[in-house]
Amino acid sequence: MQMLYDSDSFVVLHMQPELETPSAITLADGKTPAPPMPRHGFEIVDKRSGKEVYLDGSWAEMFQKVILEWQRESPTQEEVEDTLELYSGLAQNPVLVH
């Protein structure tokens, strides 16, 4: 997990699979560990509403393109927040502290 952005309004985390960790799930033979899923995703937390959204699959790929564009263009904080605001409409899960 890597924090990509943190402000008063939003946090963006990049979740990456830990490929070194052996799987607790086994294949049909009951002995062979299942290969890990090499997927990544992004968690966007809207601090104002206390909700989060997890982007994976094609959503994560699209958001990765946004991040690459930010790296090339160096947007202002307002521009970043405006973009994250678009994704915050997808946030339905309340943030829970364990």
Automatic annotation (TrEMBL):
Q: Name one Pfam family in it.
A: DUF3567
Judging by the UniProt lineage, the source's domain of life is Bacteria
Q: What InterPro entries does the annotation carry?
A: DUF3567
Q: How is this protein named in the record?
A: DUF3567 domain-containing protein
List the source organism.
Comamonas terrigena
